[in-house]
Amino acid sequence: MPNRTKPREPSLNRGLNLKTVAFLVCGLAAYALVQPIVKHNFGWNLPGPWQIVELLQSPQASQTRKAEKEVANAEEKDASYELPSSEKTASRTTGFDSRQPGTGSRSSGGSSSGGDPADNIDTFLKKLSKNRHQSPAGLIYGPGSDEGHRLKHIERHLADIPNRPGSHGVFEGTMVDFLKSIDQTYLKATKREKGSSIKEDDGATVYEASFNSPIGYLGGETGKRQRNPKLSRMRLVVRDGDLVITAFPIR
Fold it and tell me: What is the pTM for the complete model shown?
């Protein structure tokens, strides 16, 4: 009598049985419901459910795809588009000291700062919680980025970094001037004003708008080679409708 070997059952994700798969599916479904609520209320940049699935299936492949996206975005023309790297880390404890606004000259392209009470960050931004602040246009600044807070991240664009590889958009003005111009960029784009644009990019929304006069200049190694040309356009990157990721002047 021939020796009949019982056919092996197909394996799924390296031997996970059906009960385990069902448990993971239910867990991912619950996570998908909770994740956006947690991000909106606490500002925690948790990975999306599909990102978790990718990591479970092939962590090395997922990291490779992430690195490729970072390189592609970094090479974008005349822009230090930092979305992938700024999403890399998030701090739940570090806040932004609004009593120490950035310094700089008065901006000729953005809103001026001349004695108006709104020129104080504590007044201009509405404090929603310990580490979350809201602008008059409704944009939210909270924990995140390598610097620990989105406000600290965009504050880096108030000064040049001459040795930074590539380009670095520098805003000429105070921190409040910068925040006002970011709000203006958002409003110009949402109103579809001439010279503005809105596009989706890897789960984020990118707003761009032009100003009537320069708001900054091109810094970094690229800007240095080009003798720091003036910039009169702003780029704003937002997630989940109102959470600011980064903003900086561009060509």
Answer: 0.59
